[in-house]
Structure formats: structure tokens, C-alpha cells
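Before the break, one more example. Copy the sequence into your notebook; we will annotate it together after we see the structure.
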Amino acid sequence: MRESLVPVVLMSHTAHIRSHRKPRRNGSTLAMRAGVAGGVLSTLAVAGASGSANAAESSTTQTLDLSALTADLATQIAQSADATQQAAANYELEAERDAAAAEAAQQAKTDLADAKAKAAAKKKAADEAARKAAAAEAASRSSERTTLSASTSTTVSAPASGSVATVIAFLQAQVGDAYVMGGTGPNSWDCSGLVQAAFKQAGVDLPRVSSDQSTAGTPVSLSNLAVGDILYWGSAGSAYHVGVYIGGGQYLDAANPSKGVVIQDLSGYPATGAVRVL
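Here is what the structure looks like once it is written out:
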């Protein structure tokens, strides 16, 4: 029998060792890797461009925001300056008003002081004038009473009882008293009140009013008057004024509010008639 021949495959002595060389890459793999690399680069480029654009936009926005902020700040500063200026003007105006008010108050105070001083001076002058007038009036009364005393001492021929002298003395003591309508003494009189009081000192009760006193005694003519006769003005029974004859062409009466009790001449104010009581 023939032996079967088994083919023998001869192998290199290094065939069992894996090759140290890198296996070759086929074209498709390389192309794919190249595309990936290109895409990555493209992405990076786009990203970079986008970043640059965003940076530029951000820079522009920041610039715009800064400009707007600067403008707002300038506006606020201007408004603040205006407000400060207005406040200063208001303070100045208020200060001027306060100064004017203070000046007016001071002037008013000065005017008031001047007015008080003038009033005091005027009052002092008025008091001095009143004092002098009172002194002059007192001197005049004294003179009148002296004159009356001198005239009556030579003209009165009083009866032994002294009734007429009593009437004249009482009348003389009232010279200078005031005239008051309805007055009956002791310091103010009207005409009939004085005559009634004078004759009462001599014990004679006369009526109160002039019209009744004009008919209370015996009628006498004005050419035959005697000291103590009652003179009247107006018609007998309706006389409006009375006085007492004191001799020497004079009479004493409570004349009027401006004269008071005085001595007067008949020639200046002639009586209408007369009556004699004592």
C-alpha cells in the first residue's frame, strides 16, 4: 500500500509572532476620520466666530448701556443742581421775608414807643393846662368874691334882723359853683334852685321854679330896685330865668353851664321885672 503523502506547509520562523508594524488602514476609515476632524474644526471655527460676535455684541451693549447710564446720571445731576438752586432761592426769599418782618416789627415797636411818649407828653401838657386853668379860675373866684364883698358892703342896707345880708352872704359863697339843670346844691345849681336856697337861709320858703318865683313877692319897678330883690326874665308867672339884685347895677345868678354861678351887669342882660320878698 502506498503511503499517503501529506502536504507540508512550510512556515516562517516568525510566523507565529504578531507583526510589530501597524496594520494598514483602509481608505474609507481614513476618509471618515478626516471628515470628523474637519467637522470638529468647523465647529470650533463657528464657535469661535460666534463667541467673537457675542463678545462684540456684548461690548456694543455695554457701550450703549454705559452711554445711557451716563446720560441718566447727567440728567439726575442737572435735576439735582436745579433743585439745589431752587432750594437756595427759596431759603434766600424766606430769609428776606424774615428780615423784612423783623424790621417791620422793630419799626412798629419804635412807632408804638414814640406814640406812647407823645401821648404822655400831651397828657402832661393837658394836665398842666388844666392845673393852670384851675388856678386861674380859683383866682377869678377869689377876685369876684372880693368885688362882691366890696360892693355889698356899701350898697346893702339890711334890716335889723339881717335877713337880706344873710341871703347875699349865701349867694356870695356860691360864686364859681357849676350850673346844672335841676341842681339844688351844695356845689351845683340851676337859677331857681340857687334863689330858693338863698332865701331859705333867711327863713323864706320860695317856690321851686322860676315862673312861680316871679310872682312870689311884691312887684317893684326896675328903677326902684333894692338889694335882695328877685329879678326875672320873661313874663311874670311864666318867667324862664331868675337872679338876685346885689346893688350897683349888678345881679348874681346861676347863669348857664358855661358860666356857672357869676356876678353880671344888668346893662348886659336887662331883666324883665322884679319882686321884693324881704
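The first strand starts at residue 178 and ends at 179. Confidence is low (pLDDT under 50) at residues 1-17, 43-47, 148-161. Try to locate both features in your own notes.
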